[in-house]
């Protein structure tokens, strides 16, 4: 079959699928924040025009205008980010692509790359945000998150591999328990001679699994390298970016790119967002979480926590009355995040944990910011 015949066949297949699920002819509305890029607004607008030509209704939030793109004028980056959040909250758009977003703990992003050895697409689970303050629990959840993103993008039976990082074997054991409980997915087999579900560097380059499971900090490094290995790192040229925030009960379609992302990648991220809209990502997520829960996900995670607890129980600390948290303190090790929050609770300060573009955050009211910083510094959580 020639390339032209393949293209025509693919178009007819997409048309048939679209008619079946009611998405044919629908142009998803996706917002893009254009200010703040290291490559200037022109780079972001170029991406907006590319994505518009591919069937996405792009709402460009910035100062530039172009034919085929709807511009939402804002004065600066902060105003643009607030406008984006407002548009998503009010369902003026179906989703958004942006350079940073403070996802709550439990929500993290699934990236999507094109691997260099074979030009194969691979989902990296996960790349920003934190699925759990516990590393291994986070990686177990990341596997489910990756499956959700892959299925919503049209990969019907994604294979899952686990990157050979700290916690990989424990993650593998937990996922095998989930399989035994009835959660259906297939492990990938490493391209290395000894095989197995634990993936090596070669598997990253070749795209052996459809979903590569890792912790989000390692995933962040992977996606940066795979997106910019041809450019020396200053311009992310290939792939689809850091992907959508996925989490149980979370229904805001926010996809992350970086300040180094180039126009081709941003255009792909916009198209990725549109694909997730058409693929009904939140419906897929609800179904997958229900299946995983039925297979014993919560029991598996609780058993892990029980095994990891020290013999002497920690002092129980209750949260003070809730209040708006508009200030934040970064620079806290992710493994210490929940302990830092409890240290503030113990001092009578209401606080929450979160994840920003630079890493973990502890959030509190503006009025308590200075006092909270002093407490966390004395306790050794921040410098």
CATH architecture of the domain at 104-242 and 288-303: 3-Layer(aba) Sandwich
Strand content: 15-25%
Which CATH class of the domain at 104-242 and 288-303 applies here? Alpha Beta
Element-level helix/strand string: HEHEEHEEEEHEHEEHEHEEHHHEHEEH
Please mark out the parts with pLDDT under 50 across 5 or more consecutive residues, or reply none: none
Proportion of helical residues? 40-55%
Secondary-structure content class: alpha/beta
Mean pLDDT: 91
Total number of beta strands: 16
Annotation field: number of helices? 12
Q: What would the CATH topology of the domain at 104-242 and 288-303 be?
A: Rossmann fold
Q: What is the makeup of the main sheet?
A: 12 strands, mixed
Radius of gyration: 21 Å
This entry's quaternary arrangement is single chain
Overall spatial form:
globular
Alpha-carbon distance between the two ends: 62 Å
GO molecular function: acyltransferase activity, transferring groups other than amino-acyl groups
Pfam families: FA_synthesis
Organism: Oscillibacter hominis
GO biological process, one term: fatty acid biosynthetic process
């Amino acid at each position: 079959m020639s390339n032209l015949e393949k293209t025509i066949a693919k178009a007819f297949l997409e048309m048939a699928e679209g008619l079946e699920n009611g998405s044919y002819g629908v142009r998803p509305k996706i917002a893009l924040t254009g200010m703040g890029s290291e490559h200037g607004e022109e780079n972001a607008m170029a991406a907006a025009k590319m994505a518009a030509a591919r069937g996405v209704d792009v709402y460009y939030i910035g100062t530039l205008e172009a034919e085929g793109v709807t511009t939402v004028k804002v004065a600066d980056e902060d105003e643009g980010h607030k406008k984006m959040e407002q548009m998503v909250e009010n369902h003026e758009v179906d989703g958004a692509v942006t350079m940073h977003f403070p996802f709550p703990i439990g929500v993290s992003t699934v990236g999507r790359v094109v691997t260099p050895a074979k030009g194969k697409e691979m989902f990296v689970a996960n790349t920003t945000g934190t699925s759990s303050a516990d590393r291994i629990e986070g990686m177990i959840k990341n596997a489910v998150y990756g499956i959700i993103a892959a299925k919503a993008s049209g990969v019907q039976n994604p294979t899952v591999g686990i990157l050979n990082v700290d916690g990989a074997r424990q993650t593998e054991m937990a996922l095998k328990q989930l399989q035994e409980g009835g959660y259906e997915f297939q492990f990938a087999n490493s391209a290395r001679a000894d095989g197995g579900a634990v993936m090596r560097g070669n598997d990253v380059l070749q795209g052996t699994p459809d979903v590569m499971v890792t912790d989000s900090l390692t995933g962040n490094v992977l996606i940066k390298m795979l997106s910019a290995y041809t450019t020396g790192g200053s311009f992310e040229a290939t792939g689809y970016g850091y992907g959508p925030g996925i989490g149980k009960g979370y229904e805001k379609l926010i996809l992350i790119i970086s300040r180094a992302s180039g126009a081709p990648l941003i255009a792909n991220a916009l198209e990725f967002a549109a694909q997730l809209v058409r693929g009904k990502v939140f419906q897929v997520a609800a179904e997958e979480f229900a299946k995983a829960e039925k297979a014993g996900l919560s029991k598996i995670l609780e058993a892990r926590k029980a095994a990891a607890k020290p013999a002497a129980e920690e002092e129980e600390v209750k949260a003070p009355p809730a209040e708006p948290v508009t200030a934040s303190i970064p620079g806290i090790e992710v493994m210490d995040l929940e302990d830092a929050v409890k240290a503030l609770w113990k001092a009578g300060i209401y606080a929450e944990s979160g994840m920003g573009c630079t890493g973990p955050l502890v959030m509190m009211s503006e009025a308590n910011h200075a006092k909270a910083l002093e407490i966390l510094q004395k306790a050794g959580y921040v410098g």
